[in-house]
Amino acid sequence: MKKWSLGLTTSSLSGITMAHPGHDHGHWAADPIHLLTALAIAAVIATGIYVWRKQKVEKQD
């Protein structure tokens, strides 16, 4: 039941996310915002890899 309600909530919110108005790519802040977003995504991925590798090493000991 928990997975079902999580899936229903996620699918209902995805339409709202895609329906937001766009932004002006010609604005001076557009490039820094895109760069910061990419860096934030990279940091989350790097943190996940670090934690995964650390747990893997701890299991081996």
Features:
61 residues; mainly alpha; 0% strand
Tally of separate helices: 2
H/E element sequence: HH
User: What general outline do the C-alpha atoms trace?
Assistant: flat
Q: State the end-to-end CA separation.
A: 37 Å
| Rounded Rg | 18 Å
**Major sheet description:** none
Percent of residues in helices comes to: over 70%
Overall strand count: 0
Strand content: under 5%
Mean pLDDT over the residues? 81
Structural class: mainly alpha
Low-confidence stretches: none
Task: Walk me through the structure.
This protein has 61 residues and is mainly alpha-helical. The radius of gyration is 18 Å and the shape is flat. The longest helix is centred in the last third of the chain and has 31 residues, at 30-60. It contains 2 helices and no strands. The mean pLDDT is 81. Helices cover 79% and strands 0% of the residues.
Short structural summary:
The protein is mostly helical and 61 residues long. It contains two helices and no strands.
Q: What's the structural blueprint in terms of helices and strands?
A:
Layout: H1 2-18, H2 30-60
